[in-house]
Amino acid sequence: MPAGTVQLERPGASVAADSDDGVVLDHYSRTVSAVAERLLPSVAALRVEDHLRRPFASGSAVVISSDGLAVTSAHVVQQATRGTASFLSGEEVAFEVVGTDRFSDLAVVRVAGNGYQPAELGDAAKLRVGQLVVAIGNPLGFEGSVSAGVVSALGRSLLASAGASSRLLGDVIQTDAALHPGNSGGALATSSARVVGINTALVGHWVGQGLGMAVPVNKTTRAVIGTLASGRRVRRAYLGIGGGSRVLPPPVALSSGYFRGVEVVSVVASSPAGVAGVRPRDVIVSIDAVPVRDVGELQTLLTEECIGRTIAVGVIRAGRLATLQATCVELPPA
Question: Dihedral (C-alpha) 65, 66, 67, 71: value to the nearest 10 degrees?
Fold first, then answer.
């Protein structure tokens, strides 16, 4: 047997020597360590307080500006207005909630003081399945915890509830990096230490262990964060349909040029969709000529700019493409 190889159980198979494995492992370890070194000072542990200043929840937050603006999960701060943030350095300071948006499960808080090391935000739209990611947060109260894994899937949907309403979080990142309670609001970062997701713990117990989700940092969520940071409420347009994503039959796809859409299951009476003539079993394939492939994309397009404006809703009905005109109204706040 040549030096530098080991025999596997299957005859004829060989694998690189321990020395080669050591090089690969060392590169991996150095990458994860470098990300941790860069981001650990930018991730705070949050202890959320009620109106009597009693702690009732905990989580993590990612500092995004030197003057103390930080992003966390909306379900971490819930209805609270204040709490305490602690850093790996041992520093403990007060924070105040600037704004929350439960439909995106994002919130912005301001940590007292200045001179913080902000994390660099990336773009989740550039992620690829199998890409290395590092999760940093404070699971189960253990501050400054680091776990690593890969992007398991992209474009997942996750149901977020806000009062009596609910909304699908679209384009959610699925990762096998270990996440536990307390990781919510923490950073999911690439090997270059750019934060591409805010970890969430909205996954129910029925999913099991080893499955983590993160709200992506992308063009849409950056706008949400910017709106919250300015102290304004995030406004969204409302169409008034219930439905699910579906693939169109090949003949319909070839004739229409659309391959996926959102099949309408229900239409709210007197809603913009109802007034426009949208019917159950229609498949919405575009908004103002922009293709819609799933529920997440449909909701992403129904922005504040659509409120009070008439939009063109492309639908497949009985195998044919039709365009309906709907005047959107504002989605009631949670």
Answer: 30
What's the confidence (pLDDT) of residue 311? 96
Question: Which residue do the tokens 């103390």 mark?
Answer: 68
Structure pTM? 0.78
Task: Just list the catalytic residues.
Answer: 75, 105, 184
| pLDDT score recorded for residue 171 | 74
Sequence-ordered list of residues with C-beta below 8 angstroms from that of 85, at least 6 positions apart, any chain: 44, 45, 46, 47, 61, 70, 92, 93, 94, 95, 109, 111
Whether the Cβ atoms of residue 316 and residue 297 lie closer than 8 Å to each other: no
The answer on pLDDT for 204 being more than 80 is no
Which among 218, 253, 278 is the end of a domain? 218
149 falls within a domain: yes
Closest CA to 177 of 135, 230, 129: 135
> Over the stretch 229-274, which tens digit does the pLDDT of each residue have?
999 999 989 898 888 889 999 999 999 999 999 999 889 888 999 9
Cα torsion 239, 241, 244, 249: sign? negative
Q: Is residue 9 part of a domain?
A: no
Of the candidates 210, 201, 169, 173, the residue with the CA atom closest to the CA atom of residue 188: 173
Average pLDDT, the chain: 85
Predicted pLDDT at 207: 44
The reply to whether 1 falls in a domain is: no
Handedness of CA 184, 186, 192, 194 (dihedral sign): positive
Tokens coding 288: 């103002």
H-type alpha helices, the chain: 18-39, 74-77, 219-229, 250-256, 272-276, 295-301
Which residue range is the domain that position 174 belongs to? Answer: 120-218
